[in-house]
Structure formats: structure tokens, C-alpha cells
Amino acid sequence: MTSRSDLRNAAGFSLLELMVALTILALAMSVVSISATRRSPSFEMQRLAGNVVSLLREARLDAQTSGRPAWVSFDADARELSRNGGEGVSIPEDVDASLVSSASAGSPAIIFFPDGSSTGGEFALEGSGRRERVTVDWLTSRIERLDPA
């Protein structure tokens, strides 16, 4: 037969052991969450290209719903791509950016027309060993983010 003192010793983990295990687990989780919040340069380039696509789509929709042309222009000195001279996407200093469009009188711009057409063009971003390109078809105003080569 087993005595009462033998059962007490074999009952399981002590509170101290549980506290130590939970502390180690909490420290491990904090290290994982800190490393997960650091973003790679590759991720930042993808995010930036996604913001450019969103800005172009907003301008296209604005032209179609308002019945007036809408444009997205690139100011290389200010390092900003802006919609109708207002809200925009800032380009970080460590990223090279260029906009090629047929509507390049003055500052480079892509103009969207209410009929669904545009001047077309290509916006290129390059930095951190990665290149992202966003194109706009002149006939259909289709906005496409090309796979980096």
C-alpha cells in the first residue's frame, strides 16, 4: 500500500517549476515577436509597390466617377508620387524611382480619362537589390504590377 507522504511527493509539478517554465515560454515568445516585427527590405519594396498600385487605382476610379481627368504625377525632387496634386506616396531616400509616360510635359504624370483610357506609363522602383515595376496600359488603363526580374 502507498502511504500518504509518497502520494504528496509524486503529485506533480510544484508551483515554482510551473512559474519557471512559464517565464521561459514568455521570454521565447517575446524574442519571436520582436524578430517578426522587423521587416526585410524586400518586404518594404513590395509594400511600396502596393501603395503605388493603390494610388493609381484611386486616380483611375476618380476619373471614371467624376467625369474629369485625374492624374498621378511624380516629383523627383520631393520624392513623392501624388494624385491630382494632393495625397501621395513618399519614396524613401534609399529607393530609386522613375516614371515614364507619354504625358511628360512638365513633370512626369499618368493621366486617366473618364472613358477608361489613359496616357499609360511605367513606374519603376529599385532599391535593396530588388526592382518593382508598375505599368498602366494606355488603352484600357489596366494597372499591373510586374514580377521582379
Structural account:
It contains three helices and eight strands, in the order H-H-H-E-E-E-E-E-E-E-E. It is an alpha+beta fold. It folds into two domains: 4-37; 41-146, minor pseudopilin epsh fold, CATH 3.55.40.10. The strands form two sheets. A four-stranded antiparallel β-sheet has the order 3-2-1-5, covered by helices on one side. The longest helix has 26 residues, at 41-66. The N and C termini lie far apart (76 Å). The mean pLDDT is 85.
Radius of gyration: 27 Å
Average pLDDT works out at: 85
CATH class of the largest domain: Alpha Beta
Span of the ends, CA to CA: 76 Å
How many structural domains are formed by the residues? 2
The helix-strand sequence is HHHEEEEEEEE
Beta-strand share of residues? 25-35%
Low-confidence stretches: none
Main sheet properties: 4 strands, antiparallel
Main structural class = alpha+beta
Number of DSSP helical runs: 3
Counted beta strands = 8
Strands of the widest sheet, in order across it, are 3-2-1-5
Tell me the overall shape.
elongated
CATH architect. name of the largest domain: 3-Layer(bab) Sandwich
CATH topology of the largest domain: minor pseudopilin epsh fold
Helix content bin: 25-40%
CATH homologous superfamily title of the largest domain: minor pseudopilin epsh domain
Question: Which secondary structure elements does this structure contain, and how are they paired or packed?
Answer:
Blueprint lengths: L3 H6 L5 H23 L3 H26 L3 E6 L4 E4 L4 E3 L5 E6 L7 E4 L8 E7 L2 E7 L6 E4 L3
Antiparallel strand pairs: 1-2, 1-5, 2-3, 4-6, 6-7, 7-8
